Amino acid sequence: MEYATRTIYSEYAALKTTLGIIEVKKKRPRDPLTDQSDRLLIVIEAKEEPFWTVKHYQVGQEKIILHLVSDSMMDRWILMNENRRAIHWIEDGMVLFERNTFLLDLRQRLRNFSNDEQRLQLSLAFAKLLRRFEDGRSLFLQEEHQDAFTQIHHALTHLARLSVLEAGIHPEIVLWKQVRTLDLEIYKLHEELVSGQESLEQRIHLVIIGMEHLIQSKVLPGTLLLLQTMQQRDEPWPFSELMEHPNLQALKVDLGSIVGFLVRKGYIRSVARPTKGVGVEAIAYEIA
Predict the structure, then answer these.
(1) Which of 62, 113, 145, 146 is the least buried, fewest Cβ under 10 Å from its Cβ?
(2) Cα(206)–Cα(138) distance, integer angstroms
(3) Could you tell me which CATH class the domain 115-273 is placed in?
(4) For 17, which DSSP code?
(5) How much is the average pLDDT of 40-64?
(6) CA–CA separation, 204 vs 46, rounded Å?
(7) Burial readout 63-95 (b: 16 or more C-beta within 10 A, e: otherwise)
(8) What is the DSSP annotation of 127-184?
(9) Rounded distance, CA 15 to CA 268, Å?
(10) 76-86, pLDDT tens digit by residue?
(11) What pLDDT, on a 0 to 100 scale, did the predictor assign at position 3?
């Protein structure tokens, strides 16, 4: 079996563009970490453009899945928290091939990620938290309790991720196991929402109240990237310029929610400017 596996990845090990090859074996039947295969091979290649493709193989009774992924795509998965399985692959996988110290350096990066990466991930988690929470609260007020539950549960998950990130740790697939150790208050809110004895309406209401307090405590870490960007100049920022700023590209979709929230809470203020249209004013934003 090991020889057959080697024949699958050996052609990639011979390529100068291959930076590392990892093997992950299943730990349980239908293991999601290995795409429900018996073993997973991850080949990381040096490519400027994000690239990812998957190949399936059968060796005897074993199913083997090969992921070909560029280093730029792996960076994106880690930085944007788009594929949390990749964290496990890198941390727990067996190194089959490594060029220089690529995988060693990647593992070190996961354990000690930079302030810039942490700030971006905190901002992404906070943006998603706000969007889901506001949608959930709106649905709750409309008495759409089933849909409100879904949105509030998603919001609570993003709040949990934010708490884990604050501790300088990458969120894992077993998120609530992490949160139980790091932030018992959020963990208990989750327990109340999913398994409390009250009615669905009462559970959602109690969790919304609890989350409002917790969200307020996460404002500064969750919006630091935006606030620091706005401090780069004294002149107010039109919303379109904030959207196009290189620092904020990853926040484009939810930037409106963050800005609106910060205005309501008094962290930033809106400034009206005259336009050529009669009675029409353009709005820009500055630090309060």
Answers:
(1) 146
(2) 15
(3) mainly alpha
(4) T
(5) 92
(6) 47
(7) bbbbbbbbbbbbebbbbebebbbbbbbbeebee
(8) HHHHHHHHHHHHHHHTT-HHHHHHHHHHHHHHHHHHHHHHTT----SSHHHHHHHH-H
(9) 52
(10) 898 887 888 89
(11) 64
Please give the CATH topology (third level) of the domain spanning 2-111: Beta Polymerase; domain 2 (3.30.460)
Cα separation, 220 vs 191, in Å, equals 26
* Same topology between domain 2-111 and domain 115-273: no
Sign of CA dihedral 67, 68, 71, 76: negative
CA 231 to chain CA mean position, Å:
25
CA 34 to chain CA centroid, nearest Å = 20
Q: How far is CA 67 from CA 19, 45, 138, 179, 277, in A?
A: 14, 11, 41, 30, 55
Residue type at 257?
A: S
As a whole number, mean pLDDT of residues 253-275 equals 92
Task: Sketch the domain layout of the chain as residue ranges.
Answer: 2-111, 115-273
